[in-house]
Specification:
The protein has 444 residues and is mainly β. The chain contains five helices and 21 strands. The chain folds into two domains: 293 residues, Galactose-binding lectin (Jelly Rolls), CATH 2.60.120; 108 residues, no CATH class. Strands 1, 2, 4, 5, 6, 7, 8, 10, 19 and 21 form a ten-stranded antiparallel sheet that branches. It has a five-stranded antiparallel sheet with strand order 3-9-20-11-18. Strands 12-13 form a two-stranded antiparallel sheet. The radius of gyration is 22 Å and the shape is globular.
Length: 444
Amino acid sequence: MTRGKAYRGELLQHGLLAGLCTLAACIPNAGSQAPVAQTGFCVKPPETCTPDPMPPKTVDCTAAEAGLEFAPTELTIADFDSPTNPNVGEFMYSYTDATAQIYTNLDDGTQVPVGYAPSARTANVCTTDTNNHVLHVTGGHEQPGSGDAGRIVTGAPFLGWGGGLGVSLVHLTTDRQLCFGSDGKPKPESARSSYCQPDSAGTSAYKIALNLSDWDGVAVWARRGPDSQPLLRVLVGNKYVDEDISFLMYRDEPYRTRYCERVLECACTNGKPCLQWDTVPSGMQSGLYCGDPATDPQPKAISSLGVTATNSCGRTRCNDDYPAFGVQDAAFVHRPCTPYAFRSGGQSSYCWDPDPNHPYPPSGLPDSPPAESDQQCGDYWTFPLELTTEWQLFLVPFTTMYQQGWAKRWPFFDISSVSVVRLTWDAGWVDYWIDNFRFYRVRR
């Protein structure tokens, strides 16, 4: 998993969302998160806050989902009530532009960074729900010092490209053992799920991707708080655009032609200078980070407990582990942070070395320059959702999803090799409620 990309084109045209349904809904009080004498949760500073009131209402989900089928448990993206790992977003990760953090809001009114497998909170969406759990995430505020642990004060919104939540389908192929056994070894083709890739798909796609040709698209229940930006995009990636598959092919299959190429930007995207930090939090190493040690908060690091994405820069950024697998990225490690201008006129600094006398393999050859945008990974197939303060069931058919056009483009959307599903947002305030993130099809 790599960081998200800016929304670099005009917003995709809003097509019809099949099966759209709404209900009047409110959010219960999440605690006194901002010093205002009002009832309800606020994401903006007190002087501009519109509280999200209580109590919540429920909807007839049976009527809303009539005529539909949803993927079985082993194919569920995230429902926050997993029988094996309840009350969390099982296998879900978060990523941000490091200009603000994304938090999950808990039943006791406290908030913690989302990170990996975020905690859910109790909220009944359907009239038939009992002790249901949903993910309530907010962003654009910063956590104060340890003296106020658990209480969030408001700050600035996301200022860069935003952030997102995602699930890599490698967890379905391995953790849910659709394609691999408990020993981690691939099952014989006769014992695999019909969704698994055949041996002929190639090592990397075989490990991660699933064939979803039997399903029509992606479904999600969602709403927003009154001060949240309305845009939330569904993204679906496959072997042709997925950075993770490109990473594995670079590492494990150097003899294969990759479907797309990765680049690693090492400049600061938040307008801060890239400076040396000698004093950093426990568990982090001193190095180059975006911000001034004399005036800015200390940098934060990725961890299994889920702190925000590190705001490292320069050579420190190039030496960061690849987040999805927690190992060094041989394509970028030890490289200098070198300026580069693309054919399109865009320019920044990236992890690459034009000097052929560098000490890492292959020696005697300069690195290839950063891939031009028309060869880069990451431009997933997407469709924008416009959330309201009421719960809605969004159905996004695969046939309505398109690439945005800022990276390598493909003439078709191959749903026989889907490897990742995400929800993403752009710069601004974030206050989203999400439940039952699944694949669906019209009942057959």
